Amino acid sequence: MAHHHHNGRHRNPETVIDMAPPPPPEKPRFGFSGGLEFTSLTYTVVKKQRGAGGEWEKKDVDLLHEITGYAPKGCVTAVMGPSGAGKSTFLDALAGRIASLDGRVALDGVEMSPSLIKRSSAYVMQDDRLFPMLTVYETLMFAADFRLGSTVSASDKKLRVENLIEQLGLTSSRNTYIGDEGTRGVSGGERRRVSIGVDIIHGPALLFLDEPTSGLDSTSAHSVIEKVHDIACAGSTVVLTIHQPSSRILLLLDHLIILARGQLMYSGGPKEVGAHLGRMGRRVPKGENSIEHLLDVIQEYEKSEFGVNPLAEFCLTGLKPPKLNGADGLLSTVSSVPATPISGVGGEDFDHSLRSQHSKSPWSGVQLTPSRRPKHKDNQHNKPPGLSPHGHHRYSPEIVMGTPTPLSSAYTVTEGDFMTPTKATGAPAVGINALGHRGKFANSYPVEVWVLMRRNFTNIWRTPELFLSRLMVLTVMGFLMATMFTKPKDSPQGITNRLSFFIFTVCVFFFSSNDAVPAFIQERFIFIRETSHNAYRASAYVVAGLITYLPFLLLQSATYAAIVWFALKLHGQFLYFLVMLYASLLSTNSFVVFISSVVPNFILGYAAVIAFTALFFLFCGYFLNSHSIPVAWKWMNTVSTMKYPYEGLLMNEFRGGRLFSKDPLLTGDTILQQLAISTEEDRKWWMVLYLLGWAVFYRILFYLVLRFASKNKRK
To answer: In the CATH scheme, what is the code of domain 64-270?
Structure first.
């Protein structure tokens, strides 16, 4: 025991000394100087499945099981494995997107909480969520505005974006719209590169990419990975999942993590895969790719009665997996020992004899290159059982933090670098950002609102049909009303006409906002993507959205008011009429946007909005006046946002002693009393305030949904 422990402890420092005169490395090799380390990551979900008797049973399933390893700094780490291996889950776990995760993740030797990782990393999703009506250049410029903050000057931002466009090979399509199903835009490969560009504009210390090559042809895929490789060489830690890398792409990957069924199958350099297979007794046939061969072997075991557990065990302890029938394994020193089930009938001692045997022979062949530190696996045989695979860290804190070896000192980024732009060091356009970079958000609040507003206006400018269609509806309705109810006479019929006109106006204004439902549902995914890395605050998004709509809603209500006011020779104040219509549009817009943030898709969104609008219409006081509504439903009358413009507009029209009908004699005040509506002068302005109150209330609800419910996290 003591011997093992001693051995495991002193092997590392020696290697550091060996490395003292290193050959100039092509790229930084992994000392413990930096990178992402993860220790026994486990993620369990409860799965319902049909039992033998047909009844449902709940079962705990490990989507990730005790995965330990590292992703070196300055290298591209690829996560591979058959489908269903847990690649995306593993990436989510590292990126801090899983709420109930066991295990720890450390960056450069410092343990990281999920929120800290999210702040210092960028995550490129499989699907590209971009605004279709912005050009490539605009998309990247807005990203620069959000991510780089106000400390970087506008000309610097432009320079960075220009460099990035060139590096990503997007020069020819820089002024092309991104496009979507309806509008032709950039090609799939270009869109994917823009998507990556948006997330790397600020040179994150950590970059996660989920299948960056899916759906791309081989040339585009290669150029994407090449770009990612350049980012890694600039000193970032890059982790990506990849499905079927071509041979060219394999040359760009520095470190592999191979998973199957949520267990670790292999962790190390692509060149050592062959040796790993040789030790397993499954030598690679001539002319076959060693990584593909390993994936084949994994599939064979997955289909056999052993499952992939023996391979995970081999990866951890070097205990040789049992041979499969018909496997072309070569006999080695170990296979003469009867292969026992992994649960170890032979017990600890058997295990140990194997381990010591292994630590003598098959592993020694790995250390061919003097410049390379031994991988974790080498050390794992020389430590007392019962320690975690990272046991040796705990005993040598001086190594964890990276005593400045000639290599690590070149790659540790000092605090000072973050304060100044990284031009002085001759760094590439993509510099490295600090982890705690300027607090939580890059920009101050007003700047965020301003940038978001600019982007909203650009989008509205490019897709005017949404706004124009609503304006057209209101214009046409205005003309219809103006011609239907021209100059109502002073008679009972005239009064009825006026009432009909007002209730219809309120209705048109409420129903015309329904088309705002899809607007936010489309943006929601972009919002989630941008805020998951703190590009801006949720509240800034809400405020910017509100301000953007103010002038457009004002134009709509003014158009309608101007058409009907003079045609119908209405009474009261024109200003009040306009303000009330404007307030109606604001509150209904807030309501619709709130509903669309809660529902999962368009269809439910429309259904909910129409149902609620109909309810509000029923309880607004036109069908039953507010005194006649049964007590149990009184609250619906208060909640109904249609009640306020309806009563307000009637007060504005009828209040006062003017005669509206000679036979029977009816003054305006009498009409209001009969409708159970107040006749006080200032009541009508209170109605506007109530309505605006509801508008604010729905905006706040919208904010709460965005802030707390739209999280991009697995439970």
So the answer is: 3.40.50.300
